[in-house]
Design brief:
This protein is of the alpha/beta class and 360 residues long. The chain folds into two domains: 84 residues, Fe-S cluster assembly (FSCA) (GMP Synthetase, Chain A, domain 3, 2-Layer Sandwich); 248 residues, P-loop containing nucleotide triphosphate hydrolases (Rossmann fold), CATH 3.40.50. The chain is 31% helix and 19% strand. Helix 4 packs across helix 11 and helix 6 runs parallel beside helix 7. It starts with a helix and ends in a 15-residue tail after the last helix.
Length: 360
């Protein structure tokens, strides 16, 4: 006859998929009863709306059914009290930033241009795609609050679900995790008319209130310029560094230098520079044309004292795939060397020494 000790041991092997701890360790298993091969017990969830509760219940049932002498399993559900949640570190009344302690992000890279129109969001998306193709676990935090474009590129729609400790990012077809303000709006063309403090607060929530889980890389897509959003990311988020994006025009170089100076002032490492829209290859002749003038990428990187990570072409197919939400179908061979170079040089994330003081 099966014993309560055997049932507890079996359930100790079932791991909560978001908190990464066993059901027994979290104190979720209650009121175990055994009668003639029929096992009944209660699972106390952190929230009754947990989107993964069906998975948890199924795995718990399978673990107990695998024991000799068990022919039937009934599982009742309840919710933890606020005190029980506090005991496992879920914060009780103070929920802001709770998800951060459950996230394990090995490297976080902010993609910055200083100037609009150079394809910074495209570079962020292609970097995420290339890293994913390399077998990495990848997330994209869209910090461009007033001009978000990441969800459109990946074909993402709908509101992100709530997990036990925070918002769950939406997954793309290949498994890239994405969080953007556009996923929270009633319509994708709804304008976000916010002042700086609200924008900064939203970015911090995307870091601290989103359950990213285990990631090898988090790509942070910054808006153009060197104001509130960029300042918040560099001050409040632990970054491995900043990747700069430019284009061949002299004007772009001048503004990118401003972005580089900001990163240096904030004591955030500069990981390198990518030149986008560097050339166009005629599909009929194979001839290469520098539509926006000769490349200055290597010279600019040398003047800034950062690695030159590569050039990306001006490719009409990219526009077509982005409009259709199919950026993951673009062959990212040109970006794989960039991803590999970052993997070799990007340090572990850390917060800037100039992070804002509490209450300041």
């Amino acid at each position: 006859m099966v014993t309560e000790e055997q049932i507890t041991k079996a359930l100790a092997g079932v791991i909560d998929p978001e908190l990464h701890r066993s059901l027994v360790e979290l104190g979720m298993v209650r009121n175990v009863r055994i009668r003639r091969g029929r096992v009944t017990f209660t699972l106390a969830l952190t929230t009754p709306d947990c989107p993964l509760k069906d998975q948890i219940v199924a795995e718990a049932r399978a673990a107990v059914l695998a024991l000799d002498g068990v022919r039937e399993v009934q599982i009742d559900l309840t919710e933890m009290t606020d005190e029980e949640k506090r005991q496992i570190g879920l914060g009780g009344d103070e929920q802001t930033g709770v998800a951060e302690r459950f996230n394990h992000i090995r490297r976080a890279v902010a993609v910055m241009s200083g100037k609009g129109g150079v394809g910074k969001s495209l570079v962020s998306a292609l970097l995420a795609v290339a890293l994913r193709q390399e077998g990495q676990q990848v997330g994209v935090l869209d910090a461009d609050i007033t001009g978000p474009s990441i969800p459109k590129m990946f074909g993402l729609h709908g509101t992100p679900p709530m997990g036990p400790v925070g918002i769950l990012p939406v997954r793309t077809r290949t498994g890239i995790k994405v969080m953007s303000i556009n996923l929270l709006l009633p319509a994708e063309d709804e304008a976000v008319i916010w002042r700086g403090p609200l924008i900064s607060s939203a970015i911090q929530q995307f870091w601290g209130d989103v359950l990213w889980g285990d990631l090898d890389w988090l790509v942070v897509d910054l808006p153009p310029g060197t104001s509130d959003a960029a300042l918040t990311v560099m001050q409040a988020l632990p970054l491995s560094g900043v990747m700069l994006v430019s284009s061949p025009q002299d004007l772009a170089e001048m503004v990118v230098r401003k972005a580089a100076r900001m990163a240096l002032v904030m004591q955030v490492p500069l990981l390198g520079l990518v030149e986008n829209m560097s050339y166009f290859v005629c599909p009929e002749s194979g001839q290469r044309y520098e539509i926006f003038g000769p490349s200055h990428g290597e010279e600019m990187a040398r003047r800034l004292g950062v690695p030159f990570l590569g050039r990306l072409p001006l490719d009409p197919r990219i526009s077509e795939l982005c409009d259709g939400g199919n950026i993951e179908e673009y062959p990212a061979e040109a970006f794989v060397p960039v991803a590999r170079a970052l993997a070799q040089t990007a340090p572990e994330p850390r917060r800037s020494p100039l992070q804002p003081k509490t209450g300041g």
